Amino acid sequence: MHKQNKTKKNCALIGENNDLSGKIEIRARGGRIEIGAGNTLAGCMILETEDSKINIGDNVFINSGTIIDCAKSIRIEDDVIISYDCILTDTNSHSVHAEKRKMDMQMWKSGNYDWRDIAMKPIHIKKGAWIGARACILKGVTIGEGAVVGMASVVTRDVEPFTLVAGNPARVIRKLQRSDAGL
Fold first, then answer.
1. Strand pairing of 44-47 and 23-26?
2. What is the CATH number of domain 3-181?
3. What are the pLDDT digits (tens) for 62-90?
4. Which residues are catalytic?
5. Helix (H) or strand (E) run with residue 178 in it
6. How far apart are CA 143 and CA 161, in angstroms?
């Protein structure tokens, strides 16, 4: 069924000087994880499909309890901080139609989950962004360079560079100065 392993053993490409204490759940063979250098990754990365691709740049910090659930593509650029207990998911995971969900549990248990009718869109977290604790980043979202997502926010739309957003759903609180970001 599903395989759970230490992070280093399941990366297709991994840089130097990483602290990888998190785990990976492989739910379908063929997914790929690429990790740059100088990272601390304590969260859980899930490869849902054979097309799943997680790409993490350099100098990224992902705290414990964070789940990166990838069915399509999740890209995290350099110098990003993702606090604890965050969720990044590039998919709805299940059909919105009850009739189509009836067999989900049986298919999942057998390792033959059908992703064909499930909505998926890539997530992209750009350089220098900071995602606050317990935030949720949903499918199709791009977090701009140097942006900040407030604690417990639910991000359903793109966040412009150097912008602070917060709330459920997340909304713009204020623009940030590029000079404050040090980027």
1. parallel
2. 2.160.10.10
3. 999 999 999 999 999 999 999 999 999 99
4. 94
5. helix 178-181
6. 7
